[in-house]
Amino acid sequence: MTKKIVTILLMVSMMMWGAAFAGGRQKCEGTKVSASGTSTVTETAGTDVRQHRPPHGHPGDLLGKYLHDNMMTEALSELSGQPAETVKAELEAQGARKVFETYKIDHATFRTLMDSKTVKLAQQAANCGLITQDQATAIAQEIESAAAATTETTTTETTATETEPAN
Predict the structure, then answer these.
(1) DSSP3 helix / strand / coil % (the chain, rounded to 5)
(2) How far apart are CA 146 and CA 153, in angstroms?
(3) 3-class DSSP state of 31
(4) Over the stretch 56-96, which tens digit does the pLDDT of each residue have?
(5) CB atoms within 10 A of CB 132
(6) DSSP single-letter state for residue 22
């Protein structure tokens, strides 16, 4: 039973992490993104690229949320040099965006740290027998692919900006 719970926790965490950090926020014209990360479409005709996410419906969903929140708090604590308790209180009071701004934390650096923490957690789960080594490897490969795609997109955007002629 414990193995199932931790496996569910890990998978839900990966899904939440991917939705929150992998590709950044995508908004279409007329789409508003709420604080919870879900989108509300107003005055658009099929242009929203994000699907509505239902509220947490199973207690296992909370496990993933708590794991993700704790990893995020730990990562922000490391990057800001502040105690984890301080960062957690600021996240609850002000939200992640304000914490990033307050401590001038680079999103790419944060994403890289979260990637490494997620791979480490997957490896720990494999070592405990909660998931297979193949599953841990698949998680690591998926994170590596997402990071490579993000790096490629950033490099392409930077190159395009640098080569634009000045008017």
Answers:
(1) 70, 5, 30
(2) 11
(3) strand
(4) 577 778 888 898 999 999 999 999 999 999 999 999 999 99
(5) 11
(6) I
